[in-house]
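Quick illustration for those who missed Monday's session on complexes.
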Amino acid sequence: MPSVSTSCNLPRIERSEYAQRRKQFRSHLGSAAALFRSAPLLVRSNDAEYRYRQDSDFYYLTGFVEPDAVCLLLPEKYVLFVRPRNKERELWEGSRCGPEAAKELFGADEAYSIDEIDELLPMYLEHVDLLYYSLGRDEEFDRRVFRWLRHFRTVRQRSGRGPYGVLDPSEVLHEMRLYKSSEEVKLIRQAAKISAAAHLEAMAACRPGMYEFEIEAILEHRFRREGANAPAYTPIVGSGPNATILHYTANRRRMMDGDLLLVDAGAEYEYYCADITRTYPVNSRFTQPQRELYELVLRAQKAAIETVRPGVRFDEVHKCAVQVLLEGLLSLGFVKADLEAALENGLYRRYYMHRTSHWLGIDVHDVGKYMLDGVSRTLEPGMVLTVEPGLYIPNEEDVPERYRGLGIRIEDDVLVTSAGREVLTEGLPKEIEELEAMVGRYETLSIV
Ligand code: GLY
Ligand code: MN
Ligand code: MN
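Prediction with glycine bound:
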């Protein structure tokens, strides 16, 4: 039992895994130091703030979720600066961990009040030549880092000691974050499971006459009820013409009989995200044109998922989706050219203008490079990516009339495994018959 009295929020992943991450990161540091800053508190309006969410890199290395904290990694030491305990402030804002518990519960070798950082940090930095710090993310803190560096410009002249260069830690850290450990995969799997359950409930509740925000409310209610912290991003609930707006988040329209509804929503569970899209008819019956386009997107999505396995290049997944979509667009009369020329000239882009995949993890659009030395990188076990082709048909005169204004996307989350892949969002229906059976069938359903 800890000897200090505190109600610190402890991360779900074991403390030893964070220590392992810091060790791995440090092995790239040489004799440099690395400095990480917690996310700033963000004002929503006047004196009302958004709910706090820790910076992803900071969280990955520390598991510490309070604001106003700094992590300093030295070749031999892990130092945390945190908010000091304060009875009065804790009464208003909730409990603080404090330096003592930061050592005891988060494994810091040394921990101090953040109020002491100006005095203590130069003392630590004196012994290193280079500082890893991610400039440009927090201007206020950047200014403090510049002040410390300015100080060392003078010091170095006299003693030859102190940092003279700043390097970006993302280069190393974001590559580490790309490969998920089994503990991380468990959390993503849980986020996926919660998200799938919420989508299923939204489908079952959906009927003409409801507003898009009612679907959003069902999703968010289920996320929270299942223990998710929040949506991983603002849910997109786009019905009818709104389904063709890629980043539609107003979610204000009344859904009409005959509309398709595109729902893109994922939960964040213990700092790990899911990202799922399903598209279905509000009245539970696909019209013929809706069915034709849906079948095409589904075919593209399944084929793209099938390509995911170790050794395949990241952009092969996209190429596969594009190939299937384009063949369909040709046969449905959208594109009038031969396949080769249409591919070369990107004629599909009018209807499919985004990429098929992105990494998924602590951030919904997670970190990690897509290209190495200008070449698409190969997939490896432990990487998690989305597969999310779509078609967005503009309401314009020169496109086949029966498809005008339709928007469809199907998105699943896929883990690369040594055997191939695991679709983490597998349980959620996407076949036409399954969707038709589920939409509007309200009851409290659970696929958990
Ligand atoms: N929900 C954002 C995306 O699908 O990338
Ligand atoms: Mn996505
Ligand atoms: Mn999405």
